[in-house]
């Protein structure tokens, strides 16, 4: 069986470096190129010392896509460029596996439509860690019986988007199974702005940003005289790589957009 040809956008980033390592270590994958806006024309080994193969770097998505034959583009960049990369990849017939978080609902809808139109697989996964996916699924299951829910997500202080894509996805999954409701006292007043966090259909989401953290989330479900807390921690970025690997394999057999890894596991 021929290898899956993978390109990585954002190879110098914290997630990107792990992804480069994972792709190079996976026999059935071949890393054919990278996209880094600061290192156009260089080789990956010039910027990542551990890399031995001669892998070309392109400074923009159009040159990358037109210069190489690529099966899958793994995007681990920032919301604005990640969205553009994904769109260009779809237009070009290259399947995007997107770990970049912070896309708007409008952007997701547009990408979904584009994927349908082109009949191409797209995976947008706010969280690649299997434990986090299970936490979301358990939270959805539990919220049928304990519909009063608040989410606390905690990340490193370099994260650009808040709340996290995982927290938004968790709230959306809960929204699918519980009646819409407002939580807390109807007359509550915020003495400090933002004290009650963000509000997604009545589900309050609190974002903590601190040095030393990686990616952590608690879903708290309250009932009469009881509290169920579901908690997941990613202690390092390697925790996400088995999910990226699964997506690169799975996307080869998809012809539509899948948003969230929970839709790919039983
Ligand atoms: P990071 O360390 O800041 O890496 C982002 C990379 O994107 C950097 O190398 C950055 O380069 C590059 N970049 C910025 N603008 C670019 C452009 N115009 N063209 C090409 N590359 C550009 O961030 P990270 O922690 O790796 O996270 C990357 C993304 O993955 C974020 O959206 C994060 O929320 C998400 N994430 C997802 C998961 C998941 O499981 N799905 C897990 C963790 C993180 P410069 O340094 O030059 O700006």
What does this molecule look like?
The chain has 266 residues and is of the alpha/beta class. The protein is built from eight helices and twelve strands. Helix 4 (79-91) packs parallel to helix 5 (105-118). The longest helix is centred in the middle third of the chain and has 14 residues, at 105-118. 38% of the residues are buried. The mean pLDDT is 97. The structure holds NADP nicotinamide-adenine-dinucleotide phosphate.
List keywords for this structure.
266 residues, alpha/beta, Rossmann fold, Dihydrodipicolinate Reductase, domain 2, seven-stranded parallel sheet, five-stranded mixed sheet, 12 strands, binds NADP nicotinamide-adenine-dinucleotide phosphate, amino-acid biosynthesis
Q: In summary, what is this structure?
A:
This protein is of the alpha/beta class. It is 33% helix and 24% strand. The protein folds into 2 domains: 4-124 and 238-263, NAD(P)-binding Rossmann-like Domain (Rossmann fold), CATH 3.40.50; 130-235, Dihydrodipicolinate Reductase, domain 2 (2-Layer Sandwich).
CATH fold call of the largest domain? Rossmann fold
- Poorly predicted runs are none
Q: Which structural class fits the helix and strand makeup?
A: alpha/beta
The number of helical segments is 8
What order do the SSEs take from the amino end to the carboxyl end, as H and E?
EHEHEHEHEHEHEHEEEEHE
CATH superfamily grouping of the largest domain: NAD(P)-binding Rossmann-like Domain
Gyration radius over CA: 19 Å
The tally of strands reads 12
Mean pLDDT: 97
Q: Tell me the helix content.
A: 25-40%
Ligands (ions, cofactors included): NADP nicotinamide-adenine-dinucleotide phosphate
Spatial ordering of strands, largest sheet: 3-2-1-4-5-6-12
Q: For this structure, what is the CATH class of the largest domain?
A: Alpha Beta
Shape summary? elongated
- Beta fraction of the residues? 15-25%
- Largest sheet geometry: 7 strands, parallel
